[in-house]
Amino acid sequence: MAGRRAADRAPARPRPFWRPALDSAAMLALLVSGLVGFAPAFGGSGFVLAAGGGLVLGSVIAAVGARFRLNLFILTALTLVAYLLFGSLLAVPSAAIAGVVPTLESLRQLVLGIVFSWKDVLTLQTPVGGFPGTLVVPLLLSLVASVLTLSLALRFRRGAAWALMPAAAYFIAAIVFGTRDAALPVLQGAVFIGVALSWWAVRRTELAADRRNRPGYAAGSGSAPDAAGADPSQVSAARSLRTTRLAGGAGLVVVALVIGAVAGGAAGEPVTRDALRDQIEPPLDIHAYASPLVSFRKYVRDDKENVLFTVQGLPDNARVRLATLDAYDGIVYNVAADGSAASGDFRRVSEEVPSSANASTVPTTPATLNVTVGDLTGPWVPDVGSVDAVTFSPDTGRAKELANSLHYNAATGVSLSTLGLTTGDSYSMNVSIPVIPSDDALKTDSIAPVAMPKVSGVADAVSSLGSNYAGDASDPLTQIRNLATSLSQNGFFSHGLEGESPSRAGHGEERLSSMLSAPQMVGDDEQYAVMMALMARELGYPARVVMGFYPAKYEGASAAQQITGDDLHAWVEVDFQKAGWVPFDPTPPKDQVPTAEAPKPRSDPKAQVLQPPPPPQEPADLPPDVRTDNADQNQQPQQDGFPVFVYYAAGGGLLLLLVLLTPLLVVGALKLRRRKRRRNAEQAADRLSGGWDEIVDRAGDLGTPVPVGVTRRETASTLAEAYPTVGVVGVAERADNGIFGPGEPTPADVEGFWAEVEAIVKGMGSSRSGWRRLRARTSLASFRARRAERRAARRRGHQS
């Protein structure tokens, strides 16, 4: 019996070189057919370098792992090292030195890309190959898929079909991360199916040949006799049969592919497929919406008397917000959309706005507004304060569509509908209106340390005049009030409409410079609000421009207040620590129009209140630095804590450590579960047998050859030569005595036996190097040996 088991477990003949080469070529063909699927989503040729490089690296790692029988832990470590070493060249060359040598920035992008690049690929506008970090996706997928596919194909002889699973997963992933437009769907499918079927047919033939060539294989089992006594005519017939089978299989594959191609052509244009990106709502691209401030003059000119919307429930002195703008580039004041501030972060909301979105300590007054849209059309949704809930009226027939298109920015209190408002739309809105404190309270408040987006293109005249207007006031509120009051008193109002003084629209650098250099400073809300906001920013205060509405006369909260184009305004808000964003109005009154003759310049345009000589005092607390292009970035106070890149590096290191330790933890958990199952077996004899199996498995994981098909004592004699100090022979004898001897072993006997087993297992490991012990902890050799033993047992059962 032992001889028969040894024959069943006899190693197969070494495979000729061309067979692993054929396996590698077939697996690469499968993977390349999947690689083509990335083309529609990524575009260009960058993805070919990333994905193709990943396939080459993965193939080399898999070949080395198969050649030296590296375990899962080593393969994972090699894969990570290759990813970090070559990822800069393949996926983020713009961050590498000369496009090749890794840098801290390129490594940071590679580490973060493991987590975040998937979202970018699905949400960015295609083709996504030109965006930073997106090529990490094809690189990672190709690298991991090639390592798994070729490792399974090269290492397994009977279970090689499992290699088709990661190859198919890679093929599907290219479709999932693609677009509705397929690259070469018929050719991709034909190559993948044809190569997979052909390769598996060859592997099946090789397995059959291995069975026939196994020593002791009987002719009566359904195959040719032993090679030693083979009949030449039977051998020739067997070879002819194999050739016929291969030819028939190849013919079936060709026929199936031809029929599929013809049927596909006859069916006409294929139905548009759905990709994963079609099911994911991309983040709102605020660049797609123009700043409403550029249309300020259009509203006041074309809609001066037209009802833009009607609002009921508007409290006295409350202002209706249309848009909040905080980024300036010398041409237009807009919403920051570069991630430098929260003003561009619009999130989809349902009817109930999450309370966390509006978390604030500023006192508020609740109100309910009912808004009916008139001539106001476009994406910007009028609201007041911070929004708590929005309900669109079903009478318009668009309630569901409007609700699904609603986005809200909690940092600025701005609502936006990607569908756009039209005449007749109506909605109800629960809001919380901030209470504006008195100037006495604001004087004791400090400026909030909020980061603002950079501004550029600020005219020199705006900076210098802002310093003069702010005066020598010691507190922020007085300086800000001086800016608003000086602009309001020194300037003149005009929309530039028919019958009014000339006043050009726009708020770019040239418009503001010409406005300040003219004999009279003439403009409207658009120019004055932008000018004051830029002055405040130059002084270091967090200021933004708000465009919205408030009527000259409030009708009361119970009345339906009609809002026209004449009620459109722009003002400035500055963020205070306790009070939040406080509004300031720098625009002159509408009746303050230019005079026919230019007035003489004021003798002292600085402060508006005569101030006594200041007594000696401590230096005033300066406002927190606000990041601008015009401010010296080197003079910003050092932030507490570590630099940001330190956190990135630490996070990336922890992530890599977790990935490296995961295989170790998984394999260790599996071995611990196996040991527990053996030690707690129902029968005492099974617990003794399990203890001996634990010793044998430990030896196999340590790389010691363990004979198969022999008795425990024979195995113990072999192991005693490799581990002479651990007493393996005595444990084998006790196991045999307990299993085959008279009577049932007592629990105490079993526990004593397992104590010896644990001591032997520990001693076996101590006799080897630390590196050998680490490899043994992650080795799957014992699992493979037990699996092969079960298969041999099943074969013997079938033959009997």
UniProtKB/TrEMBL annotation:
The alphabetized UniProt keywords are:
Membrane, Transmembrane, Transmembrane helix
Q: Which positions fall inside the Transglutaminase-like domain?
A: 517-588
InterPro entries named among the record's database cross-references? Bact_TGase-like, Papain-like_cys_pep_sf, TgpA_N, Transglutaminase-like
Transmembrane helix among keywords: yes
Domain of life per record: Bacteria
Q: Indicate whether Transmembrane helix appears among the record's keywords.
A: yes
- SMART domains (UniProt xref): TGc
Q: Give the stretches traversing the membrane.
A: 21-41, 47-65, 72-101, 135-153, 160-177, 183-202, 246-267, 645-670
UniProt-listed PANTHER family: PROTEIN-GLUTAMINE GAMMA-GLUTAMYLTRANSFERASE (PTHR42736:SF1)
Q: What is the protein's given name?
A: Transglutaminase-like domain-containing protein
Per the UniProt record, the source organism is Subtercola boreus
